[in-house]
Design a protein that fits this description.
The complex is a heterodimer of chains A (592) and B (232). Chain A has 16 helices and 25 strands. Chain A is of the alpha/beta class and 592 residues long. The chains are: A alpha/beta (592), B mainly alpha (232). Chain A: One of its GO terms (molecular function) is FAD binding.
Chain lengths: 592, 232
Amino acid sequence: MTTKKTDAIVIGAGWAGSILAKELTEAGLSVTILERGEDRATAVEGDYPTSIDELRGAIRHRLFQNLSQSTVTIRNTIDQTAVPYRRLAAFLPGEGVGGAGLHWSGVHFRVAPDDLALRTNVVARYGKSFIPEGMNLQDYDVTYEELEPFFDKAEKVFGTSGEPYTIKGKVAGTGNPFAPDRSDAFPLPAMRDVYSASLFKKAAANVGYHPYSLPAANASAQYTNPYGVQMGPCNFCGYCSGYDCYMYSKASPNVNILPALRQDPKFTLITKAHVLKVDLDSDGKKATGVTYLDLRTNQQVQLQADLVIISAFQFHNVHLMLLSGIGEPYDPVKNTGTIGRNFVYQTITTSRAWLPSKQYTNLFVGAGGAGVAIDDFNSMNFDHGPLGFVGGSPVWVNQAGVKPIAAAIGGPGGKAPTWGEGYKDAMVETYRHSLTIDAHGSNMAYRDIYLDLDPTYKNAYGQPLLRMTFTWKDNDIRMNQYVVSKIEPIMKEMGATRYALGQLHANDVFDTRRYQTTHLGGGAVMGADPKTSAINRYLQSWDVSNVFVIGASAFPQGMGYNPTGMVAALAYWAAYHIRTTYLKNPGPMVQA
Amino acid sequence: MKMPSSTRRRFIGGLLGSASFWLYSDHKVWADALVAGNASPYAPRFFNQEEWRFLNAACERIYPTDAHGPGARGLGAPEFIDRQMDTAYGRGELWYMSGPFVTAPANLGYQLSLPPRDVYRQGIAAADAYTRAHHDGLSFADLEATEQTAVLKEFEHSDMALGAVPAHLLFEQLRQNTLEGVFSDPLYGGNKGLAGWTLLGFPGARADFMDWVNQEGAAYPFGPVSISGETA
């Protein structure tokens, strides 16, 4: 085994890892990112026209994790035997430099402040008995005011396009009235609304809601970010989700951070480096570095460091903590331990409206982050008292560019045939004249929904796979049904000739065969209490103080908003406190 | 007019970046060249003759020729599928294929040890054996179109084992691959003449809609273009 040394190791070259690596090199540290996939540069493989190939891209998963080497196992309930997630479908983790931040869509939210202290807020408003039995409702132990400068910083790095509502307490625009106050405007004006989104905007306002153009990390104009890297104006080509952006308009670590970072002599990027475990000292209180497998030579390498940042995809973070023995694995029966606890997802359902045949929705036109939403039924923006559930959903038209293979396999919708006679007629009507409205909602945490190591299945390197125990719960199903019921009047107001509402149904189980979302969360959550959280408010491990765990793994609940904006803000927040406090006096930043 | 395809691709690749290509080029000539290049019938490399007959018939029933235009056969979907069998996808190299393989609830996803190549190899032989046993000794390809559709409908909703493959899984493999062949870039052997995209009104590799963000519901006016520059 080869042994090497660096000041800080960053595991994973996605958004969180790239942000931490940038911040730590700025602080003067030598930083090595270990990325298990290939290097990826938009100039090389994001080029036009070869990158806009649906078969190779979104269908054969060019930018996604190759499950042949490692996957997860999944079961719905604790009494089942989990089986491998053999084919990508329900969720699509990334692989390679950029991670999921290369193939994401670009919806770039902040956070609903009430969501950061959801337990406190629900208890204050409705009492403790409002929380269903078995729901692990928790606070983040960080406030919006504390995070605001880091949301602002992330938006400026991402070149985010949006319309504000208030800036420093004063109404400054026609943005989302439920959005929290801002210290500054968005760096770029909002993306334009595509036709279907503009119809939604008018109709939602007419029925009394508060529509706004989504904040998007798709550049509405040419932009140079604080690191000096440039973005081009989005041309609505429709190849965001599942693709690298040939226009350099969609923010990605590859376009917005790495071009600056790669020029820093203190920075090293090692690709095809699969981290097997974080190495701990003899009493398990400090990390000494990591052991990784060089996938090119099949040799194990020990890399020593004073600081280890675990910033891979959400469930890979949890997996690595379990494999390394960082913290106590969660046991749902004894209700002890924290690693794997509060594993969450999101509730996402899609409804479709068909318009008269003279109206063309041109579904291929789109941008992944753009669209129009309402927040009237998100977070705690409405009265849950008579409804009896916790959580909510933004509702939106987010026309990200619908490509023909996905459309054809998905079928025309409604009761139309999915092949054979009548199929073409129905597909033509759907592809030319329909639009979709999503309810993109929260998912609460439950005592018997969690992550642990699988007892049977192994990855290509002989390590146990991560096991997910996950299914839908009554609270979240009822929340989804309530919000979807609010979509119907909007569709009627839009002049839909017919519509099909998509919603969860009572007793639905999680189905791994159908894409829902890649917004997985939790499993190594932040919080104030080491008995119910894996990391403190600075995303520092309670158990191993020179390990920080950055990502959506820190979310105690699945929020209604898309997670990337929150992940980036938490990354900058953690980096700031590492730089200003931790590095001066390494050790626990919060006393347990 | 014919050129070695690599030369043609390089030439068109060079043109794609220039405005003059989009505005003035008479690229019908390239579409003709591509059609001419496909004039001789495709000889399958993975499927044997019996399987090939089954595949052609089944694809055509899934996406039939009708008043809208050519079906899966005319669009080259069987050729597409044959070519896909010799890729990482066809060999199952994109999937986690370690055991143990166990039976699990359907909602937990695919749990067979078979990559697409073997789903077809085992499934088609068994499907033909099934039609021979139930339709007077006739293979699937020799049935009337309405009978073929009826058999596929039966497969679509059946757990009946075709080899080691449940019938509904063979059907869904066929349906998905057929539609991939109809609607993917012609680079992969299907969507000939871009007829799949033309049906839907998908403009292919144009991928620049700056002026079409919101035209108040007007239909997008331009036909499709492929990655190699073919138009329709």
